[in-house]
Amino acid sequence: MTDTTMAERPHVRGSLNRDRVLHGAIEFADREGIEPLTIRRLADHLGVKPMTIYHYVANKEAIIDGMIDLVFDEIERPPADDAWRTGIRARAVSLREVLRRHPWATPLMESRTNPGAGTLGHHDALVACWYRSGLPLEFIAHGLAVVDAFVYGFAMQEAALPFGDHQGDLTEAAEEIILPLPTGDHPHLVRFTQEYVLQPGYDFGRSFDFGLDLILDGLEAAAARERAAGDA
Amino acid sequence: MTDTTMAERPHVRGSLNRDRVLHGAIEFADREGIEPLTIRRLADHLGVKPMTIYHYVANKEAIIDGMIDLVFDEIERPPADDAWRTGIRARAVSLREVLRRHPWATPLMESRTNPGAGTLGHHDALVACWYRSGLPLEFIAHGLAVVDAFVYGFAMQEAALPFGDHQGDLTEAAEEIILPLPTGDHPHLVRFTQEYVLQPGYDFGRSFDFGLDLILDGLEAAAARERAAGDA
DNA sequence: GACACTACTCGTACTAAGTACGATGAGTCA
DNA sequence: TGACTCATCGTACTTAGTACGAGTAGTGTC
Question: What share of chain B has pLDDT > 90, as a percent?
Answer without folding.
Answer: 75
